[in-house]
């Protein structure tokens, strides 16, 4: 029976190691996706930014306001599109700024605060890999030890509860 629990621990540890190594890989692929979207959005906004630079001292909001106040319906409609692109660039820049911190903060950001659409795209296109860098190995070992300790704790807790139930004195009913 002991060899079964030893193998179970080994399997749990290896599974935790492989899952933990994926954390930096997911963060890396998410960051690359954000960067690609930011590059594309910035390129799409570039012409309007040049106009804002030329006529409004680089103030994109002033350009949008100008379009919104125009008598031309086409310009007013374009103001909605320009605002969308401008807000998207700002949001993606903020996302990239959050991903420029240390690995623990980046992983926390991706886990709890990531852009849901970009995270969904990342996971749909995710390709499992084993990164062989120090951070990935640390994540893997920490995950493996944590998962193994959690399993050991659960098994010990169940054993403790089972012993308490077995050793509980039985109360006889006198009625």
Automatic annotation (TrEMBL):
Transmembrane segment boundaries: 7-27, 136-163
Entry-linked InterPro entries: DUF2937, UCP029393
Keywords: Membrane, Transmembrane, Transmembrane helix
Domain of life: Bacteria
The protein's name: DUF2937 family protein
Organism in which the protein naturally occurs: Paraglaciecola aquimarina
Source taxonomy: Bacteria, Pseudomonadati, Pseudomonadota, Gammaproteobacteria, Alteromonadales
